[in-house]
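Bumping with the actual sequence this time:
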Amino acid sequence: MKKLLIALVSLVPALTFAAGSNVPLESANIDLHDKASLERGLDLFQKYCSGCHSTKYQRYSRVAEDLDISIDDMKAKYKYNDSKVGSLMENAIPAKDAAKWFGATPPDLTLVARVRGEDWVYSYLKGFYKDPSRPFGVNNRVFPSVGMPHVLEELQGVSEPVFETQQIDGVEVQTLKELTPATGGSMTAEEYDQAAKDITGFLVYSAEPIRLERESTGVWVMGFLFIFFIVAYLLKKEYWRDVH
């Protein structure tokens, strides 16, 4: 009983972390069978995110195998350090320097899609907007007071916030209503939507590389149980025929 209570208490921080904000999330509709999208997500993650964020519970060799990437291509295109291809996907920035520059060490993102959900990650990547009051000049509608820069700004551009004023208990409160279309990026809105989906897909895959295999195995298990149920039912009728 004591161990059960300890386990339940340990879940509280994770549940709080997963709750996030109350902003409606956009649907990502990730297809883990689309390996081309996952590879594009890997490419974007390595170029724009891996300098600060790691996926240290993944190995380059496992990603290459799962996404049908040759080891030579993995080394040449997606591995930006001298580590072996079988090593974990660590980030490039030292933890102490990251904490000094950003106020806190950027978290590992291997499991972020499993904790937050794919819709949260997708909406977060699309949720940055201009906010001069923040240290890096941007904020995020999904993660208010975000402590990181908008590293994909050169792709998406920057959005302007649109606020509305509400009366709450006699006090005027400004709330974020919507964001204007982003401008100044190298991608169109449709292209950036796909880029955000690609990165999200890679993080969904990273959170559970065995997911497709698990789901496939689950179908076979359910089929076996269904057939076994029929056989067991027929045996039961045969054994109990004389009794009835």
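The tokens above came from a reply further down the thread. The domain at 22-209 is CATH 1.10.760.10 (Cytochrome Bc1 Complex; Chain D, domain 2).
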